[in-house]
Structure formats: structure tokens, C-alpha cells
Design a protein that fits this description.
The complex is a heterodimer. Chain A is α/β, with parallel strands linked by helices. Chain A is built from 10 helices and 12 strands. Chain A starts with a strand and ends in a 6-residue tail after the last strand. The two termini of chain B are about 40 Å apart. In chain B, the strands form 2 sheets. In chain B, strands 6-7-8-3-9-10-12-11 form an 8-stranded mixed beta sheet, with helices on both faces. Chain B has a 4-stranded antiparallel beta sheet with strand order 2-1-4-5, with helices on one face. Chain B is built from 11 helices and 12 strands. The chains are: A alpha/beta, B alpha/beta.
Chain lengths: ~325, ~325
């Protein structure tokens, strides 16, 4: 099958005082049309940097050390700015965490949506088409919504508008960075349903970045678990949740308050803290917190490839 | 047990604004709740349900239009009462990092409550060290500034600050919002330890139901500023008596891909307080609404000895729910 977006051996560093911070280290993954890929990990694991690199929107100070991000075969990291601008929005689009700051507060929703799509294709910027798209993402009274300003909408409605804006030009890939973090549970559930529904009707690939395991389980087909800048495990969502192989994945799933029996009293935690990304150890970065470490773990762990696209970065997973 | 905090018929309204307008908008309506010593009560509801307004009203940050707040059995009537309350009840804010002044060291910040309330502080360094140790932070952190802390550390400093004056009650607004799951677990364990060791009472404001299950003995569900259901956490989760409670529980994403929901339990969002629905205010989103729900507002009434709810059909609804739970 042809993947819509392929990331290969990507490494991104940030220049910081006294060295470089290795935010993304040798990450390879791919996502196909009609598939939802989840990227999960704790704060500082590099998941947002990876998402930004996927659309080549890295902040100043970030540097790509190696690797490629190919969208339908074209390496986004090598494109000149003008060519990149014409691809963004049309072929690949992004939804951000905070739906308030994604919009200009002094322009109406209709004006902003017309600007997004009009920049690529003026024929698609008619109020009728825009209203139809808003109705598609579940906004009641879509024609009136076009006349409104961002502050007049609730957080959930703004996030729906942001998703509508991203889908206006029917991109091949939609990237969403923590799309439900700022919302209530009831709205979160509705946005999850919307995204699940849209990927089939729009025939696009969806990448979701989140630290919420419940969102991953509800929405994704495949998952990549990140730790200290690396993808430590990836595979089908059911395998990851029901038969995790990497000790970090296991620990992460075990300490989610939603899975622990309330009567148990105490929640399991992951002792220790994430390693310093400016000064990484030579061996496995999870070693100091790992409860099943071997002597071999002081050496870099191997990437073990298993059937059905599953891979694990661990000495324990080897033959 | 004597309640530490009691709210009796508490109502809050806000001015509607507008030129020469005296109209006021009811935000909280007739809320009656109590928290006993060593007990933990969770207040849940969507944004706009009045959770934060309630916490602000308790702490005297929001004028009350009717009803009263009683602390330690005595009504909070004047400034002296309020000073006593703010000393013995501490607030943990949602955005822990933003609630810490960026120019002060952690050591100063955790001992600041002593200075604010003119309490004796013979050796600030030692007090700071003890407080930080109580929340599991190393003493060296006292010399750091807030921007040098991680999210979990900032949250712990917020807890240390709240505990400084040995409060009897802690009001925690979304204590785990924005934290990673492993850090969430640490904060929840810490809250449980402190409750056991110091006999603290908690009023926890959250929309995270997983959290409620772990830290709360009782739960109160707010909808448009009214309590619609209240009772022991385990009982309410096992068989919610109000359709709103049931749909909140169902809306929560389950961390198991085999338990994906085919359909949504609840749609839309909370109606505006400017246009409160008639009858039962939840009827516009309720899948079980009947004619009477659109006309007659239900009253909050006891369904069992420890539980109250405001639904015309609570008994039938609960029975159906139990059938459902058995089928699953």
C-alpha cells in the first residue's frame, strides 16, 4: 500500500546554551490514507517537534540533522519556501491545541476561512461552500457562524471551525497536535467521533499527537510511543494496549488513573524522571527507570521488527 | 462527624451589564453541600457549570447573593470570619506555574502564607525545607525560581504552599489538568497521603472523572449552576440516577481500543445561562426527556439515604442503568 506521509530517520536538534538538545532522534514512521496514527508520550518526549517537522513548521533554533519527510513522494524538508506554501493547506494541514490562538480575533470566521481557501483556489471560497464545510463538522446554523468573530464561539465550536479550515482544501494528511486537550469530556468525545468519521469521508491520513491514552484508544488505528526523542514502540493500537512489549509502554499504560482499580488506593508511578536531552547516556535512555533492565542495556538498544508493522526498541524484545 | 465546610442554599449572580441595567444573571442557584473532616468531595460538570464560581464564592472572592457559607460550624459573616477561613482553608490553583510569582524563589514562595497572615516564622529555611519534604521535593529546590521547575514540580510547590499553615480544608481546582499520566498519579498519591496523615478535607473541582474515582469519597454534579446529583462516588458511578451524570461517565474516553463507543451519549454543549431552558434545564440534551421534563422543573430530592438527585424519572433511570451494567 502507498503511504501518504513517510518519515525516515528524522533527527531534529535545538541549539541551546552549551550544546544541542536532541528533541527527535532517528524517527521513522508512516501513515496511510484512511488511517489514524497516534503519537503518544510525556511532556518533553519530542512529539510536538515531530508533528511540526511533519509539516516543516519547526520553530527558529531547530535544526534538522538528518532524514526526510515525504508527502506523496516529495521531501518537504528539501522544498523551497514558495513550493512548501502551496503544499501546506492543500496537501497537508494542521490543527493546533489551542483553538483560541489559531484565529485572528479581529476578522470574522467567514473572512478567515475565505482567506485560507482563497489563497489556493478562489473558486472554493464562496460562502455556500464554506457554510457547507462548517455544517459538515457539526456546526449548527453554519451560515450565521460565518458572520461571527472567534470570541463569540465556545472552545469546542472553535476547534470544529479549526478542523473545518484544515479540511477545506481536502488535504491528503491532517496533523492534529493535542486537539482535545483544552476541551470538556463531552466535547472531547464529540471531536473524537468527528475525526474518526472524517478520515473515511475525506479519504485522508490523520496524525494525532496527544498525551491522553484514552484519546489514542478511542481514535487511532496505529500508535507510536515516544520516549526521550525516540519512537520506542509502534504497532496496531490493540497490540500496544493489550500486549505492550517495551517496558516504558507498559509503565505508561499501568499508571493511567483511568485503568487502575479505584479500590486499590495507590496508583503506580514511573520512578525517576526523563533524561536530560542535552546529555543523553550511551545506552538505553529508559535504563535508569526500567524495572527489568539487563547488563546489555548499557549498550544502545536494537530496533526489533515484528510482523504487521510492529517494532520495539529494546534489548528484551530481541530473539 | 462535624462538617468543616457547609454551603446552605448558596446562590451567586453576576450583573448582566448594559447601560443603567440592574438585571442580574444567576450563576449558582441554591447549592447546598457539606464537606466533613478527612472527607473528599468532588465537584464535577462541564465548563460553564459554575464549579469555579463556587470555589471563588467559598473563598470570599465572589459576593454571595443568597444563602450562607459555614466554616467549622460558624457562618462566615464578617471580615474576621473570612480571614480565619482563608487561613484555615487553602486554595490550589489550576495553573500552578502561573500562580507562583516569577521573581521569588521557591523557598520564599512556600513560606509566603506565614507572612501574608502574620504568623510567626522563626526559621524560614527550616520551614521551607520541611514543607518541601512533605510534598516529596528535595531541599535544594528552595533556591530555584518557578521557571526552573517542571510542571509536576510546580504543582507540588503549589501543594506545599497550600499546606503551609496546616489548613483543615484544601480547595483544589483541576489539580491534575495538563499533567502527564505518570505525574498525575504522583500528585494523586500525594493528595491521598496528606489526607491520611493530616486529616485534611478536600473540595476538588474537576471535569476529569478518572481522578474523581481515585480521590473523592463523594461526588456532586453541577449543571448550569445547580446540583443535579450528589452521593457516594462508588454508588454514583455504579448506577447514576441522573441522565446527565450517566452521559458524563459515558463520554470519558476509555483507554482500551476494544471498548470503543459506537455512539455518543451526549451531544451539543451546555446552554447559555442567558437562555436557560424551561422545566428541567437538561431536557434539551437528554435522550430520555418526556413532556413533563419540558414543563416542570424537578426538585433535588433524596433517592436513597445518602443520595440526592433532580430527575423526574430517577428511579426508572437507575433501574435501566443497572440492567445495562449487568449486560456489559
Amino acid at each position: 500500500m502507498n503511504a501518504a506521509l513517510v518519515v525516515e530517520n528524522l533527527s531534529v536538534v535545538y541549539r541551546v546554551a552549551g550544546g544541542s538538545l536532541q528533541a527527535v532522534r532517528d524517527v521513522s514512521l508512516s501513515v496511510q490514507r484512511k488511517e489514524v496514527l497516534g503519537i503518544v508520550g510525556e511532556s518533553g518526549c519530542g512529539k510536538s517537534t515531530l508533528a511540526a517537522a511533519m509539516i516543516n513548521l519547526l520553530p527558529a533554533g531547530a535544526q534538522i540533522r538528518q532524514g526526510s519527510v515525504r508527502l506523496n513522494g516529495t521531501d518537504l524538508l528539501q522544498l523551497p519556501p514558495a513550493a512548501l506554501r502551496s503544499l501546506r493547506g492543500r496537501s497537508i494541514a494542521m490543527v493546533f491545541q489551542d483553538p483560541m490562538t489559531a484565529f485572528n480575533p479581529v476578522l470574522t470566521i467567514g473572512r478567515q476561512l475565505a482567506d485560507f481557501s482563497g489563497a489556493h483556489d478562489p473558486a472554493r471560497a464562496t460562502p455556500d461552500l464554506l457554510a457547507a464545510m462548517l455544517a459538515r463538522v457539526g456546526i449548527p446554523d453554519a451560515a450565521r457562524c460565518l458572520q461571527r468573530y472567534p470570541h463569540e464561539l465556545s472552545g469546542g465550536m472553535r476547534q470544529r471551525v479549526a478542523i473545518a479550515a484544515a479540511l477545506l482544501l481536502q488535504p491528503d494528511v491532517l496533523i492534529a497536535d493535542e486537539p482535545t486537550t483544552a476541551l470538556d469530556v463531552t466535547m472531547e468525545a464529540q471531536i473524537i467521533h468527528l475525526l474518526r468519521d472524517l478520515r473515511t469521508s475525506f479519504d485522508c491520513a490523520v496524525v494525532i499527537v496527544t498525551h491522553h491514552l484514552g484519546v489514542i484508544a478511542e481514535l487511532c488505528d496505529r500508535v507510536a510511543v515516544m520516549y526521550a526523542g525516540e519512537v520506542v514502540e509502534q504497532g496496531a493500537v490493540d497490540d500496544i494496549f493489550h500486549a505492550p512489549l517495551h517496558p516504558y509502554t507498559r509503565a505508561l499504560l499501568a499508571c493511567d488513573p483511568a485503568v487502575v482499580d479505584a479500590a486499590s488506593g495507590r496508583l503506580p508511578t514511573i520512578a525517576g524522571s526523563v533524561p536530560d536531552l542535552t546529555d543523553l547516556p550511551q545506552g538505553c535512555p529508559f535504563l535508569p527507570r526500567c524495572t527489568v533492565a539487563l547488563p546489555a542495556c548499557h549498550q544502545p538498544p536494537p530496533r526489533v521488527h515484528l510482523p504487521e508493522g510492529r517494532s520495539v526498541l529494546c534489548h528484551r524484545a530481541g530473539p | 462527624m462535624t462538617p468543616v465546610l457547609e454551603l446552605q442554599g448558596l446562590s451567586v449572580d453576576l450583573p448582566l451589564g448594559g447601560f443603567l441595567s440592574r438585571a442580574r444573571l444567576p450563576i449558582l442557584q441554591d447549592v447546598t453541600l457539606s464537606v466533613s473532616q478527612g472527607e473528599s468531595l468532588a465537584l464535577v460538570g462541564e465548563s460553564g457549570s459554575g464549579k469555579t464560581t463556587l470555589a471563588r464564592a467559598v473563598m470570599g472572592l465572589q459576593p454571595i447573593s443568597a444563602g450562607e457559607v459555614r466554616f467549622d460550624g460558624r457562618p462566615v459573616a464578617d471580615k474576621a470570619d473570612l480571614a480565619r477561613l482563608t487561613r484555615d482553608a487553602a486554595m490550589m490553583f489550576q495553573d500552578a506555574a502561573a500562580s507562583l510569582s516569577p521573581r521569588l524563589t521557591v523557598g520564599y514562595l512556600v513560606t509566603e502564607p506565614f507572612r501574608i497572615h502574620d504568623q510567626p516564622l522563626p526559621s524560614p529555611d527550616r520551614t521551607a525545607r520541611d514543607l518541601l519534604a512533605a510534598v516529596g521535593l528535595p531541599a535544594a529546590i528552595a533556591r530555584r525560581y518557578p521557571h526552573e521547575l517542571s510542571g509536576g514540580q510546580a504543582r507540588r510547590v503549589g501543594v506545599a504552599r497550600a499546606l503551609a499553615l496546616r489548613p483543615r480544608l484544601v480547595i483544589a481546582d483541576e489539580p491534575t489538568a495538563g499533567l502527564d499520566v505518570s505525574v498525575q498519579a504522583e500528585v494523586l498519591n500525594l493528595l491521598a497521603d496528606l489526607r491520611r496523615d493530616m486529616g485534611l478535607a478536600y473540595l476538588i473541582i474537576t471535569h476529569n472523572l478518572a481522578l474523581v474515582r481515585h480521590v473523592a469519597d463523594r461526588i456532586a454534579v453541577l449543571y448550569l449552576g445547580r446540583v443535579v446529583e450528589e452521593g457516594p462516588t462508588a454508588e454514583v458511578f455504579a448506577a447514576p440516577a441522573h441522565p446527565y451524570t450517566a452521559s458524563l461517565i459515558a463520554a470519558e474516553p476509555k483507554p482500551d481500543p476494544r471498548k470503543r463507543r459506537a455512539d455518543l451519549a451526549i451531544r451539543g454543549e451546555v446552554p447559555s445561562v442567558l437562555r436557560r431552558p424551561t422545566g428541567c434545564e437538561f431536557h434539551t440534551r437528554c435522550a430520555f426527556a418526556r413532556d413533563i421534563c419540558r414543563r416542570v422543573a424537578p426538585v433535588l430530592r433524596p433517592v436513597t439515604r445518602q443520595r440526592r438527585t433532580s430527575c423526574h424519572f430517577a428511579e426508572q433511570f437507575q433501574q435501566q442503568g443497572e440492567h445495562h451494567a449487568m449486560e456489559n
